[in-house]
Amino acid sequence: MRATIANYEMLSFNDRIAVAVSGGKDSVSLLHILAKMERTRSKASFTAFTIDEGIKGYRDEALEIAAAECSKLGVDHHVFSFEKLFGFTLDNLIKRKRQNRDCKLTACAYCGILRRRAFNVAAREVGAEKIATAHTLDDEAQTILMNIFRGDLARLAKEKPMTDEVHPKLVRKIKPFCEIPEKESALYAYLKKVKFQAVPCPYASEALRNDFRFMLNRMEEKHPGTMFTVFNSLERLRPALNEIDENRHFAECAGCGEPSSGGLCKVCELLQQVR
Ligand code: SF4
Hints:
This protein has helices at 2-7, 25-38, 59-73, 82-86, 90-99, 107-125, 137-150, 153-158, 182-191, 209-222, 226-236, 238-246, 266-274; strands at residues 16-20, 45-52, 76-81, 130-132, 172-174, 251-252, 259-260. It is an alpha/beta fold. The chain has a single domain (2-274), classed as HUPs (Rossmann fold, 3-Layer(aba) Sandwich), CATH 3.40.50.620. The longest helix is centred in the middle third of the chain and has 19 residues, at 107-125. It is globular. The protein binds iron/sulfur cluster. Iron/sulfur cluster (SF4) is lined by residues 53, 107-108, 111-112, 201, 203-204, 207.
């Protein structure tokens, strides 16, 4: 992980980092490792936040675990809920969309739109200038293939181990685990006896990502190194992708004032439909 951080120049000596802790094995392992590393940087500040999407019977345990692990490490922990930020829990939003027979996307797609915004708002509120997320090599390889299958070159170009500084209101994201297989982050959690939530989200089975996870896991089993190859191939294409990304235009949403590429941001569009 140190090599990944160094190669992509993810950290500097006076960073203000906020780690997004969901309570799952990857994010809790990342929290432990970064907390240890940041202790050696006297000018850096380190905090953590958890997004409560409002998923009944799922998020409560994760919130307890995230809070307990942060307190064990002496890291400030903040919780931001969809309900407070957007006026809806994810459960309510999905229920309304399904009642109106207007649920064109999976729950994870709606969750993703709101969560990206919540991450950014949370990071700004806690005064962070970088958000560390626990996306593993597995997540990255899945995302790359999903974007290729969708033919979404703009998203392919946008997803990076460390996002660029493109708008003053958009906090940069770093992914220190992007070259770490999920199995290794799980191993770290087990060996260090780190507590994490093992129960999956009730909406997870609907996610398109599952099909890619299944396919990649089978490929990895038969042809070890497949996920690294997918990740590295994209990084070799990075100079060409950067040219696509350079044309990305940012303005501010007419509804909420958050960074947006169109007139209304996706969050405002979604909330308008639900209301
Ligand atoms: Fe959100 Fe889907 Fe993750 Fe559940 S599995 S927390 S709905 S993105």
